[in-house]
Give the backbone structure.
Amino acid sequence: MAKKRWYRSKFLWLTLVALVGAGGFEAYRYATVKADKPTYTMGTVDRGDILSQVGATGTLQAVTTVQVGSQVSGTIDELHADFNSEVRRGQLLARLDRSILQAQVEQQEANLRTAEASVNDTAASIASTRANLEKARVDTLDKQRKLKRTKELFDANLVPRDDLDTAQANIDAARATERATEAQLASWEARHKADQSRLNQATASLELAKVNLSKTVITSPIAGTIISRNVDVGQTVAASFNAPVLFTIAADLTKMQVNTAIDEADVGRIKIGMDASFTVDAYPGETFQGTISQVRLATTTIQNVVTYNAIIDVPNPMLKLKPGMTTNVKILVESAEDVLRIPNSSLRFRPSLTEVETAEAYKKSGEEKYYNFVKAMAGGGAPGGGAARPGGGAPAGAFRQGGGAFGGGFGGGGGASAPRRDMGAMMSRSRRGQRVPIWIQDPTSKSIRPVIVKLGLSDGVVTQIDGGKLKEGEKVITGTEVDLTRTTSGGATRPPGFGGGMPGGGRFMR
């Protein structure tokens, strides 16, 4: 009987297969768990300055800008100024053709002379009529005396009745002549008044024609620099409905203004006298300084956004800044110097832990009291969207990112008794003065734990912290790096303590 070879033993092969299978499973499990463990991105607690600023856009303009126009129509006959010309007050800028307006002046002078002659004629007629009236009055008195004597003689039967009737007829005729002369005098006086009115009108028309003639000479109303010329020699300007603009003059370009549009959400923080800085595309890398001199009450609405105009006074001694330049403005609202700062991304980080692991992390960190208080508020003690501030303030949803009774931000399987809170809406509010958790990682055990800090001023990138256990140079967690090349379907093997991926597990991707 031949000896049985060892490699033909079924027991041996079954043992080898079992060992290889067990080793492969452990290797796969180890690789899967290791690949699924989060790798955190870190930020540093540093010390420096924080500037709280309001950003806006604006346009540069001169403090005083005057548009010089023409009040009369005509053709440009002469130009005595051009773009960028420095002019003084009263300096000749342009002259319009005078021929038509000069003819109008001469015509009005002739009309005036005619009106004066008419006035003189009526005045002479009035004088003649008054003399005739005086003569008629004298004649009436004479006829009245003769009537009286004739009546006395008639009463004495010394004259016949015909003489008395003749004397009465003569006095009646004299009185009629006197009344007619008075009416003629009144007529001449009325005509004289009309002629005098025509004379006054002719005088006014002549003055108007002379004024229009003088308007053909365009002079500068202020001293400054011409920044715009809109006409050329030979061009006709029409001033029928409005005055055409010939020149635009900016006074003293060493003093400029920035007209900015401030959003209504920021206008309450803007005060007169605040410092502002701005840049222009013409000088990249160079910053100009100014001061807010006015916040105007008139509003402008563009695409349902309400803005207010803030005027910033800017010195321009080197004349670098030009009218019309677009500016990017930053208005300094508040500042903090030499303070501890943390990156704002660390405020948004929420670890993927279960509530049990979260409670253990807070307990190890010595912040169990804070944890219990906020958990109670998040569980229904705080009004919706409200803020609970233990010893300085922590929002009721401070830990809320995904699902879970404790805001859900610590794990995917922690229950669902509390409602979700809108993280975006919460982060949009001011969190200054609140006490919030910042997560750090132990360099030895690689476990993470929270540190409670009180927030101060923020510039949108970094935030001031006041108090707490964080020190300068310490590392804080700002996010989680996730291997996007790995895909999982259904569910993936995860180590204990880590919930599901976003959104339920609250995994933060930076």
Remarks:
- Helices lie at 10-36, 99-155, 161-214, 345-348, 355-364, 368-381, 423-428.
- The mean pLDDT is 81.
- The longest strand covers residues 46-69.
- The first helix runs from residue 10 to 36.
